[in-house]
């Protein structure tokens, strides 16, 4: 073996605690990754405790996650009652009556070597009113309720966009479970009543179940949800509380009947002390109100949600509480936390499942041996911390730029934001450019969508746009808008798209 490792050091037993989205995604991906390597994977979940039962909106990385397991879009969509998500439509966040789409993908096309937004800003300064959305195929499709696959040979940069899914989270976990069990993962349905640690170093040793059985492991993956049974409760890893930046700390979630044809986007509408989500699935809709308990009572939040829901509720709203933040480290001793056990920000921008994917990917890349070299753990923790802090900044931006009235929204506007976000905002405003940190989940196109959607625009244009003839620019932009409108008119409705995908399953 290289680097002094020996076969005797190899991890032989991985124990995953929790069978929610995080647990079964980890089981599926690790069983595929470690196939043939002689590693036994056991997943323990408690059907008495159940799962958090929300988490229906994703970002495009989910499609690459399951593609790596050999699953097609059509297969997953059918198994999980999924619809297509081309972006998020923000309603009333800047001011009542205003909306914009954060699409997955780029805006416009390059004309003379500059990022597209510089041309858009020049035309805007000359009085062209078309919003940035008009230059994104993904945003236009989402707005019109159409859906299609990105052009495989785009011919024009205008055909480039990406897409994700809205799915039934329980069905997705079951789909991952079927795959994992086929790959040899052992599932135990039991409640863990005791966690045993090695006396000499505090490493996790075994889990005692309510049946009396004891399950030993070398590496433990904590996917136990908000309780954080291993990382938080047992190993005592502190929680960094970010509720001074992300004021929402809970939600009411409810499923409803479908109200009309499904839009191909998540809709998030600003409300008095937070925002409301609407997620279309095949036969029902997921709805919820995320709010700040400092600014709204439970009773008012529940009423506000039910009053503004287009579909008839099919259940009582469920109250969920969370503290935005993360565990100080995601990996301690021989335990890696994934999903809610390692932290949660809030549902806006659907980043929680995506953080599970990147956590799993990082674990694959840095898979340890029994020596649990501190260098490996430190690298995992540094990457995880940087990534979630960048997501945190992106979410804070949405609140900071709001233009609404009311105590909650004024508090969001007035709050101090992290230096890392201030640096981004300063460069954007000064020069229309993007500070790029490591481990960013959201590309400059996403930051642009939010800056432009909130009409927070640079004070100076790129000097090079002065060299572009204004009339020629106006003609080029009009041609782009026309080409995109014509493309959208030729695409199926979202409902037709779903039927086409079913035919391919
Ligand atoms: P859970 O689903 O809570 O699973 C925990 C598991 O641990 C369960 O199987 C439970 O039985 C088991 N367990 C716990 N204790 C024990 C024990 N003692 N013994 C045995 N088993 C035990 N994410 C997105 O990406 N998109 C969204 O749109 C989105 N919306 C959200 C909306 C809200 C209001 C909230 C709160 C979260 C949302 N999330 C969203 C986050 C998403 O729901 C989670 O990231 C995802 O469901 C993963 O959860 P989990 O598997 O970590 O935890």
From TrEMBL:
Q: Which Gene3D superfamilies match?
A: FAD/NAD(P)-binding domain
Record: residues binding FAD: 19-22, 340, 353
Matching entries from SUPFAM superfamilies are given as: FAD/NAD(P)-binding domain
User: Coiled-coil segments, which residues?
Assistant: none
Superkingdom of the source?
Bacteria
Which one Pfam family would you cite for this protein? Trp_halogenase
> Which residues are 7-chloro-L-tryptophan-binding?
85
Q: Does the keyword Magnesium apply?
A: no
Supply one GO molecular-function term: monooxygenase activity
Nucleotide-binding as a keyword? yes
Q: Which residues bind L-tryptophan?
A: 349
Write out the catalytic residues in the record.
85
> InterPro entries this protein is in?
FAD/NAD-bd_sf (IPR036188), Flavin-dep_Halogenase_NPB (IPR050816), Flavin_halogenase (IPR006905), Trp_halogen (IPR033856)
Tell me which UniProt keywords the record has, alphabetically: FAD, Flavoprotein, Nucleotide-binding
**Protein name as catalogued:** Tryptophan 7-halogenase
**Species whose genome carries this gene:** Sphingomonas naasensis
């Amino acid at each position: 073996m290289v680097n002094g490792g020996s076969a005797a050091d190899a991890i032989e037993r991985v124990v995953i605690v929790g069978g929610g989205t995080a647990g079964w995604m980890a089981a599926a991906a690790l069983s595929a990754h470690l196939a043939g390597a002689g590693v036994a994977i056991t997943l323990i979940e408690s059907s008495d405790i159940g799962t958090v039962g929300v988490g229906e909106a994703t970002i495009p990385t989910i499609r690459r996650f399951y593609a790596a397991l050999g699953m097609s879009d059509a297969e997953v969509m059918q198994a999980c009652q999924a619809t297509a998500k081309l972006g998020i439509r923000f309603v009333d966040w800047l001011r009542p009556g205003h909306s914009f789409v954060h699409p997955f993908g780029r805006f416009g096309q390059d004309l003379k070597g500059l990022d597209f937004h510089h041309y858009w800003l020049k035309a805007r300064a000359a009085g062209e009113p078309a919003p940035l959305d008009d230059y994104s195929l993904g945003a236009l499709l989402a707005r019109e309720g159409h859906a299609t696959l990105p052009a495989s040979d785009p011919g024009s940069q205008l055909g480039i966009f990406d897409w994700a899914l809205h799915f039934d989270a329980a069905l997705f976990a079951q789909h991952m479970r079927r795959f994992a069990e086929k790959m040899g993962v052992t599932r135990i349905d039991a409640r863990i009543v005791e966690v045993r640690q090695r006396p000499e170093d505090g490493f996790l040793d075994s889990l005692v179940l309510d049946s009396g059985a004891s399950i030993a492991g070398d590496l433990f993956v904590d996917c136990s949800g908000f309780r954080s049974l291993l990382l938080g409760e047992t190993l005592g890893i502190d929680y960094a509380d970010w509720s001074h930046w992300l004021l929402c700390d809970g939600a009411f979630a409810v499923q409803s009947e479908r109200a009309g044809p499904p839009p191909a986007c998540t809709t998030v509408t600003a409300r008095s002390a937070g925002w409301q989500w609407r997620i279309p699935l095949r036969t029902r809709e997921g709805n919820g109100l995320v709010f700040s308990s400092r600014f709204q009572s439970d009773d008012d939040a529940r009423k506000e949600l039910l009053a503004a829901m287009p579909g008839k509720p099919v259940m009582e709203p469920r109250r969920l509480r969370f503290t935005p933040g993360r565990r100080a480290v995601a990996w301690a001793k021989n335990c890696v936390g994934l999903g809610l056990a390692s932290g949660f920000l809030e549902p806006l921008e659907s980043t929680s499942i995506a953080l599970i994917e990147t956590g799993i990917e990082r674990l694959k890349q840095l898979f340890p041996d029994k020596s649990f070299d501190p260098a490996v753990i430190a690298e995992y923790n540094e990457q995880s911390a940087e990534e979630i802090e960048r997501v945190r900044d992106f979410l804070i931006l949405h609140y900071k730029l709001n233009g609404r009235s009311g105590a909650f929204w004024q508090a969001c506007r007035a709050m101090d934001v992290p230096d890392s976000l201030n640096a981004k905002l300063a460069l954007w405003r000064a020069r229309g450019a993007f500070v790029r940190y490591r481990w960013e989940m959201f590309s400059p196109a996403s930051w642009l969508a939010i800056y432009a959607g909130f009409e927070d625009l640079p004070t100076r244009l790129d000097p090079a746009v002065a060299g572009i003839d204004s009339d020629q620019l106006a003609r080029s932009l009009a041609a782009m808008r026309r080409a995109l409108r014509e493309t959208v008119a030729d695409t199926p409705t979202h409902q037709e798209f779903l039927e086409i995908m079913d035919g391919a399953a």
